[in-house]
Amino acid sequence: MILEHRGARPTIDPSAYVAPTAVACGDVVVGAGARVLFGAVLTAEDGCVEVGRNCVVMENALVRGRDGHPARLADDVLVGPHAHVNGCEIGAGCFIATGAALFPGARLAPGCEVRIHGVVHVNTVLAPGTVVPIGWIAAGDPAQLFPPGRHDELWAVQRELDFPGTVYGVARETPPDELMRRQSEFYGAHREDRECG
After folding, report:
1. Which of 134, 145, 108 is nearest to 123 (CA)?
2. Tens of pLDDT along 121-156?
3. Where do the domains of the chain lie, and which CATH numbers do they carry?
């Protein structure tokens, strides 16, 4: 489904393929030879999504662009099934495995791998060729790698990355009802989406 959102329509190269059950919504550009498979969602909320040449976004993956945090996939990137790519920049030839989660402000240099269920935290920068092992977390600039279970060491780096400010634009102490009211209003803009013919 190809949708206009906030007045912007997707641009899809004629040689690209977007599956009939995939969604491209808003300011989305899909490059030559790219493939967006069944159930995948490319959604440009109030920013943009750019998918480079010969990229493959696999089944049920999410690629989201936000204001100040565009989602940009350089050429030859694979985004695996059920991966979550939110407001980050991915260099050429990167491999994002099944179930990986990449958060706003993250930047991956060319040739990085984020393996199954790996996480790249907000505002984290991966050097060229970095591998985030299965289930591990990358955090910081430059990135440090943490295995599951090393929460205290991870938190010492993570708290300085400002997840609530980066993702939601609020202070950490914002009450949940205020945060969710703001999120509900923001995503309410989708009520005005229109299918492109």
Report:
1. 108
2. 999 999 999 999 999 999 999 999 999 989 888 888
3. 2-195 (2.160.10.10)
